[in-house]
Amino acid sequence: MTGTSRSIHLVGSLPFDSAEQALRSCGETLGELVTSLPDGETGERKMWINYLPEQIYSSHPDLEETNRPAPDAFEAPKHDDPDSPPAMDNPEEQWLFRIRPGTTDLSFDLGYARFALESYEVFKSLREQGAIAPDVSFQVCFPATMSAVDCYFGDAEEWPTVHDAYREGILADLRTILEVIPPDDLVVQLDVCEEVVDLTLGDRRYQSFYPKRTFDEKFTAHLGLLMDLGRGVPDELPLGIHWCYGTWGGWPMVAMKDLRLCVDLSNSLVSEIGRRIDYVHMPVARTTDAAFYAPLDALDIGETKVYLGMVHHEDGIDGFRSRLEVVREHLDDFGIGAVCGFGREDPAELGDIVSLHRECAELLPVA
Fold first, then answer.
1. By the 8 A CB rule, do 283 and 12 touch?
2. Nearest by Cα to 151 from 237, 84, 85
């Protein structure tokens, strides 16, 4: 093995039918090249934030549906224009909710703790069997607050109330998880997608019912919500951030012209949040254009680990090798991953994506 240790990061969702399959495959293939392993977000969580309206919001006694989309609205569209998000600006195509009149104390039982604890038992068993390396931790991923709320609530005046309830629901789940999982065996990741897509649109509105805001206003609002959630994660827990351009209809949902937004978000978060950020994950387009990578020169995040989503199954090891040459002109120490998760992808079209991660890691310079 010629690559650096702890050089691979798995974003979260994986193309397996069960947590056991995901954890075993990744554990056996990647060994000590990973710091932590996610459970693949299988089953009810396969469609990521769509889990929330399907399983939580639609059955909540203090919420009312204001619009229910047709069933095929949850089938990922194919889009040919990466400069525009795929048909997400029509409220008639959104599953929308409002707070029931008279509600005075909104709260959520989000259910993420149940999934985590069930998967952790599988994780422990596999580690005891030797399928997972001894010092690999269990990774739990949560959608960031804006991603989980804004696109499902059509009245922006209700957002602060729902934001608070969601944040407290996540932190309650985390407390439940910590009753079982030791802090030194856990890694927490916040997935930041709708925020990134919204910011990539600049001053334009991501959805028609969103309030009109400038890029700077959106940047401040989204970063503030993320910091509020991150500050609630106990300091003894490793905390990572996945900056995400989305896979709904194909990656990226909006054009990723360079790494500037990811760098700016990382710099601002690390400098302002007031707690340790252990890593940031940034997706990387299939390009060797020097201008795309140039913003990395401005990255200023101290000891925070950087993982670059450079692994693309479309061009495999050769494409990775070409991107690696350019990245090394800007960063000396970094890990790698894919651009996003693969839970909604056709496994037949991915090849052995887990093995590809390992092959790519073998090309990294020794630390």
1. no
2. 85
Write the pLDDT tens digit of every residue in 87-145: 455 656 789 999 999 999 999 999 999 999 999 999 999 999 999 999 999 999 999 99
Type and span of the H or E element at 347:
helix 347-350
- Give the C-alpha separation, 325 to 315, whole Å: 15
Contact in structure between 22 and 40 (CB atoms under 8 Å): yes
CB proximity list for 274: less than 8 A, separation 6 or greater = 227, 231
Query: Could you say which DSSP state residue 344 is in?
Result: T
Domains, the chain, ordered by start: 19-361 (3.20.20.210)
Angle between helices 159-178 and 215-231 (to 10 degrees): 30
> Which phi and psi (to 5°) does residue 36 adopt?
-145, 160
Determine contact, residues 52/95, Cβ cutoff 8 Å.
no
- Interval 74-89: pLDDT, tens: 555 555 454 454 445 5
